[in-house]
Amino acid sequence: MIKVVVCGALGRMGTAIGRLVSESPDLELVGGVDVKAGSFYGVPVVEAARLDAFLEETKPDVLIDFTIANASVGNIKAAAAHGVALIVGTTGFSPEQREEIRLAVEGHVPAVISSNYSVGVNIFWTLIREAARRLPEGYDIEVTEAHHRYKKDAPSGTAKTILEILDEEVGPRTHLHGREGMMERGDEIGVHVIRGGDIVGDHTVLFAGNYEVLELSHRAYDRGVFASGAVRAAAWVIGRKPGIYGMADVLNLS
Ligand SMILES: NC(=O)C1=CN([C@@H]2O[C@H](COP(=O)(O)OP(=O)(O)OC[C@H]3O[C@@H](n4cnc5c(N)ncnc54)[C@H](OP(=O)(O)O)[C@@H]3O)[C@@H](O)[C@H]2O)C=CC1
Ligand SMILES: O=C(O)C1=N[C@H](C(=O)O)C[C@H](O)C1
């Protein structure tokens, strides 16, 4: 059995992941970590300050982290120091934090890090790459994302991954976050963020040319799509060489 600890256990994603791990025949949920102690699915959730001691006591094979960027970096370092494999779904990292994570992980433990664990979004990213590569010059590009009212980071991690893909395929362009007032369109990529209600996660890329618009969209209806991807990655990551992997590796898309 693969022993799993979930960081952010009492959050929206931690709860969904904990349930799937507890129901899996191949995985054993040994506990959770959150800001406050508690329990979930019959196992303890310990306070964040006890993470090191908890890893020492429970000796998990994998730690799944869906918390917040500032907390996640420390959780990743703790797991790597204990030789625990990682699945990281947290978004909103700064470039400096990404570098800290890379240094903590590379050469130490295998880690899957993805801004989106759904199968659909991972296919969506390949379609965006293909469209951006094939369309001739002259198409304007706009990226829109919508999420629930509680989401803290903006734009979403998925939207940032989309922008990375577009930059790779069409060359780096300015990312213009919203528009207001008088302005002429240049060759920027417009980025638009919507927050409201209980929207699980919508992303759209629009390529607008003369007399035609190509629009690619993905809509998640339930967090289960992210949770099941993260749990699938947890089973996959065991036994891999140390280093950073993406969900495309798990799904064999690359
Ligand atoms: N990659 C993907 O597929 C997906 C990624 N996400 C990302 O996952 C993250 C979590 O999302 P979501 O579950 O909606 O957020 P929630 O706020 O519901 O859950 C996060 C949980 O982490 C807790 N937390 C904060 N600091 C720590 C810490 N140091 N150690 C342990 N737990 C801590 C929070 O406690 P408290 O509330 O008390 O601060 C909260 O319970 C976000 O970054 C989000 O963007 C979300 C969905 C899919
Ligand atoms: O916070 C969320 O809810 C989500 N976050 C991820 C992101 O920032 O891209 C993935 C998904 O869209 C849901």
What does this structure look like?
By secondary structure, the chain is α/β, with parallel strands linked by helices. It has two domains: 2-113 and 223-250, 3-Layer(aba) Sandwich (Rossmann fold); 119-220, Dihydrodipicolinate Reductase, domain 2. Helices cover 36% and strands 29% of the residues. It has eight helices and 13 strands. It has helices at 12-23, 51-58, 69-81, 95-105, 119-134, 157-170, 224-237, 247-250, and strands spanning 2-7, 27-34, 38-40, 43-47, 62-65, 85-88, 110-113, 140-147, 175-177, 189-195, 201-209, 212-220, 243-245. The strands form two sheets. An eight-stranded mixed sheet has the order 3-4-2-1-5-6-7-13, with helices on both faces. α1 (12-23) packs across α7 (224-237) and α5 packs parallel to α6. The mean pLDDT is 97. NADPH dihydro-nicotinamide-adenine-dinucleotide phosphate binds next to α1, β2 and α3. Its EC number is 1.17.1.8. It catalyses: (S)-2,3,4,5-tetrahydrodipicolinate + NAD(+) + H2O = (2S,4S)-4-hydroxy-2,3,4,5-tetrahydrodipicolinate + NADH + H(+); (S)-2,3,4,5-tetrahydrodipicolinate + NADP(+) + H2O = (2S,4S)-4-hydroxy-2,3,4,5-tetrahydrodipicolinate + NADPH + H(+). GO terms for molecular function: 4-hydroxy-tetrahydrodipicolinate reductase; NAD binding; NADP binding; oxidoreductase activity, acting on CH or CH2 groups, NAD or NADP as acceptor. Homotetramer. Its main location: cytoplasm.
